[in-house]
What we know:
This protein is α+β, with helices and mostly antiparallel strands. It has helices at 3-20, 24-28, 95-101; strands at residues 36-40, 43-54, 59-69, 75-84, 90-92.
Amino acid sequence: xxxxxxxxxxxxxxxxxxxxxxxxxxxxxxxxxxxxxxxxxxxxxxxxxxxxxxxxxxxxxxxxxxxxxxxxxxxxxxxxxxxxxxxxxxxxxxxxxxxxxxxx
Length: 104
């Protein structure tokens, strides 16, 4: 993994870590948050926060999805996320969740 990819993954993970500390209501308000456009080692990158209701549990699924242009062509996708419930508890994303958001 390149240095830029490691830095980018750490940026995505840091945003996920910060969001895990946020209150449930605060996270719900991020449902329409604009994407963040950044540059990592001269590469264009986009970090998006996705907040979706989780029908069965009353919780929400929070996903931080990052996409960074590769040197030659294509995109590197980095994902972090979790479920948060009204009582403040957290649960990790499932493997299926990660695969769903690890695509362009």
